Structures are given as C-alpha cells and as structure tokens.
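User: I would dearly like some help making sense of a protein record. This is the protein in question:
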Amino acid sequence: MDGITVIRVWSYMTSNKGFFLRILDYTSFSFSAFLAGLFKHCDVIVATSPQFFTTFAAYLLSIFKRKPWFFEVRDLWPESVRSVGAVSKESKFIDFFERIELFLYKRAKRVIVVTDAFKKNLIQREIPFGKIDVIPNGCNTELFSPRETDIDLKKDLGLEGKIVLGYIGTHGMAHGLEFIIRSFKKLDLQKYSLLLIGDGAEKESLMNLVAQENINGVHFLPPISKVEVPRYISICDICLVPLIKSPTFRTVLPSKIFETATMEKPFLLGVDGQAREIIEKYGCGIFFEPENEESFLEAVDQIQDEQTQTRLRSGCQALVREYDRNALADRMVKILGSDL
C-alpha cells in the first residue's frame, strides 16, 4: 500500500456491541500480530492505541527481538471506556487494565501522544516528562482540499435545496448523535437535512429513534471509503464534530477538525477542552457546549452568517499551515530513528 508492505493477520471479528466480545476481538489480533512479528525483520516497533492490546504484542516482540518499541497513544484507553459508560466506573476489570497500561508506558522506549492534555495526564500519573512526545493529528492536503459542492451527489441523495448538517464517522456511545438528532428536530425541517454516514454500536438505536419519533430529514448512509470522504464533505453546509459531555474528552483532538478545516468547510465542535482551545485560537470553527440543545441551536444559526463564514475560512487556512501532516510525519520519523 503506497509502497509499504502491509501484513494482515487473523483476528476474531465482531461488531462493536458488547465489551467482552470486543476484548476477544482485540486480544486475538494481539496474539496473531505477535506470532507474525516473530518472523519479520524490524529496527523499531510501533504500537498505536486504540486498540490497547496492540501494545501487548509490541512489548513482547521488543523482548524477543531485542528492539526498541514506541507507544503511540491516540486514546486514553481504558479511561475512555469508563467515560462512555460501557462498564461500571467502579469496575475492578478496568482497574486491572489501567495498571497494565501504566506498566506498558514505563516499558516503552518513548510515548507519543496526540495532545498536550494527554501528556499532562501521563505526567500526573508519574510517566517522566522527557519520555513523552506530542505529535498531533494533522491536515492531509493530498486527500483533502477546498472543492465545489458535488451537485450530482446532493441530487442523488435527495438533498437539493436543503441546508445539510453532516456527520461522517463512528456512530458509537461516545459520539453524542442521539443528542444531535433530538436537537435537529427543533430546526425547521423544511429547510434543513441531517446526513449521518458510518456505522457503530448505536446506529440501530439511532435509526429506531428517528422512526419512532417520525423525524423528517434525517438520512443514514453506510460507511464510505476514506477517498470518498471529501466528496461527501463537499455537500455538507455545516459539518458536525460532537462527543458526549465527559471530562475525559476534554483531552482529545478529533481528526474531523483537520479534515473539515483542510476543505475550508464550516464546522460545529461539541468537544470542550483542548479541541475548543485549538479552534478558538485559529478561528476555524464554532463551539457549542456538548449536549446543550440551546447552545447547539444558537451555533447552527451563528455559523450561517456570511461574515462568520469568511472568518472561518481564513481560520481554516491558518490551521492547515500550522498542522501540515508532512511536517508532523518528519518529526515522527526523527523520533523513531533517534537511537538507531
């Protein structure tokens, strides 16, 4: 893939429904990846979390192969599992995995996180400051760029003449889409449409909610490939980046921010904390308080102002200059090769 050899291994596959089945899915991949890795040459080993269990394979391979391994943290798992209510907050099972998490942080050559807030979290948990690098999500200007609305696609989906609010991604417990749907029905449904693209544990219940409450203008589509995402973003007048209200999510920086900003599309951010700080610093999006209907509806109205949209486009351009993915990749390569 793009000149890189990709080795695929067997794992037990299950839909994102049920904590323990997902654990079986994750651990089966970790086991298969470890076995496959034993027979492959490497200079360094990198494991990305989520999912968390990839790091088990990396740690064990580093012992057997006597090579350094790097822990890239894109989600504070298992803390995020508690946040969405997938298990009890008092679960001893999660306490056990958090102890393993800290063990693995300490055993990795370096820990690479995507936000300063993640770094602060790890330092508070006694991971040495100098061991942690921050490389945030970045803007992929090769795939995403400003483009005209795909009129044919909008027509095919029956969205002509509508102001389209769009969400593309996982329909999970963390993403607050039930709140979005319930808030959406307070808008003028002759004027607006809501486009939800993707799959996840909550999708069926969201579709049932729309059917039971007879909410017009909500369109569900199956997942699309990454290369198709820009085409679908082009038909969205307002892009949505929501999460549920949780202290844990104050530390995250959703990649959707960078995709929509690179296309210079106006977006509403329902994530407080570091993500809010970023968009307000660059002036590239409008924040609404997570799970606050009044705040959301005010933001929908505000973002349609012509002067606001001009300001947001300028902010998006500034963000893209600062978070160029190629420059961030160069930093990553230097970190991985620093001791070779």
In short: The chain has two domains: 19-138+325-336, 151-322. The domain at 151-322 is CATH 3.40.50.2000 (Rossmann fold).
